[in-house]
Write a structure and sequence with these properties.
The chain contains seven helices and four strands; from the N terminus they run αααββββαααα. By secondary structure, the protein is mainly α. It folds into two domains: about 60 residues; about 140 residues, Up-down Bundle (f41 fragment of flagellin, N-terminal domain), CATH 1.20.1330.10. The chain is rod-shaped and about 145 Å long. The relative contact order is 0.17.
Amino acid sequence: MSSLVVNTNLSAINAYNNLNATDNAMNQAISELSSGLQIQTAANNPAGYVTAQGLEAQSNGYTQAIANAQNGVSLIQTASGAMNQISSILQTMNQLALSSANGATNDSQSLAANQAEFAALQSQIDQIANTTSFGTTPLLNGSFSNQVLQVGAFDNTDQQISLSIATVTSSALGVSAASVSVGSAASAQAAVSAVQQAIQNVAADEATVGAIQNQLQAVVANLTVGQQNLTAAYSGLVNVNFAQETTAYSTDQILQQSGVAMLAQAQQAPALVLKLLT
């Protein structure tokens, strides 16, 4: 009867060890249920913690990449809107040039009026080109070239888009005051070709930035799906399953109560030795 010893109560030690294990399990369950996390520190699950940190970093990177791409879309829309205004101005300039080119019906006063309006439109093109900006970054004056948009979570060229926006000043378009005028029928005829070429050039520039805008919108859609999947994976790894954990906690509560009762019983076992001494 090994339990009938006084110096070493193996039954009590065994009951204590079981009770201590149950108490640790309860503390862990309480910590998880109160925080909602099954991995709070690396000690909870070293491998899982490393994986979770990587998933969180990638998910955060996707969040910022989405914001970067959306800012890129806004930048392009700003540039495209200004180009659209320049296109409208060029269409008016084309009408003025065609009007002045009709020398048979124009007198000096009508030609002068056309030229005054034409010159004002030339200045307006330069005003738009030199003042259109995204924040403090000029977009249309020729300085926006080979700018990088970071549209991914990692330092990878496949996750970067290089963006350049063409110069659309009157000089770059070949319709500056030094190049064309509509003050005479002869000069107006030359202006027609120059203005119509400028219209085509601006349209091509708008098409280029429009294609990049579509690309960025596709990137945003893809990143959004990827972020959702990463968030789901992170949640499944880190967040606690409340149904499972509350069931385990209830079991631990019962084991704790029975463990305390059994430890009390085991501690009384050595008292049986007194019966052998009477």
